[in-house]
Write a structure and sequence with these properties.
By secondary structure, the chain is mostly beta strands. The chain folds into two domains: 8-92, Elongation Factor Tu (Ef-tu), domain 3 (Beta Barrel), CATH 2.40.30.60; 103-164, SH3 type barrels. It is built from two helices and 13 strands; from the N terminus they run E-E-E-E-E-E-H-E-H-E-E-E-E-E-E. The chain has a seven-stranded antiparallel β-sheet with strand order 4-3-7-1-2-6-5. A six-stranded mixed β-sheet has the order 11-10-9-8-13-12. Strand 3 (42-46) and strand 4 form a beta hairpin. The longest helix has 5 residues, at 75-79. The radius of gyration is 18 Å and the shape is elongated.
Length: 170
């Protein structure tokens, strides 16, 4: 999720060509992955430009999704889309409950210990099964469990920071 425009949320990436009729494979960042098919319109991010694209068809397939865009009729035209990120307008998502956040809102927050030591910025999050983990890039990479109340004490989206109870030596 390297593109930033707070009107949009990056929800997937086109990862390959599927078949001979212009379909593409999409890696969805939503959970469950086929939720991505419920959001319209899609925006294909190309060179920092958000280009609106409607879907002609889409379905779950193996470990991802396959979709067809109007005008994409063969592998050559599909190949032009490979590698591009997919975004949707932020307003298609319901507002999160109090104390809940979309992962996209946590990206780039400054991570600061309760003692005031800045550890870096949230680069991404990952699921581990037990709990989600913040991947924080600073002078080095840190993996910090996203555990509200025990590790994560405050998330301030307005100030762009997250306060954590974390030993900077970890």
């Amino acid at each position: 999720m390297c593109i930033s425009d707070n009107r949009y949320v990056t929800v997937g990436r086109i990862v390959g060509v599927f078949g001979v009729r212009g379909w593409v494979k999409v890696l969805s960042y939503t959970s469950p992955s086929d939720n991505l098919l419920n959001y319209h319109p899609w925006f294909i991010i190309e060179s920092g430009i958000f280009q609106e694209r409607e879907l002609q068809a889409g379905q779950s397939h193996a470990k991802g999704l396959v979709v067809l865009f109007p005008g994409c009729v063969d592998p050559a035209s599909a190949r032009l889309l490979v590698g591009h990120e997919v975004a949707v307008r932020r307003e298609v998502f319901p507002a999160p409950e109090e104390g809940e956040y979309y992962w996209a809102d946590l990206i780039d927050l400054r991570v600061i210990t309760l003692q005031g030591i800045e550890l870096g910025k949230v680069a991404r999050l990952m699921e581990t099964g037990a709990n989600d983990v913040l991947v924080v890039h600073g002078e080095r990479e840190r993996l910090i469990p996203y555990l509200p109340g025990t590790v994560v004490h405050e998330v301030d989206l307005v100030c762009g920071r997250m306060m954590v109870d974390w030993d900077p030596e970890f």
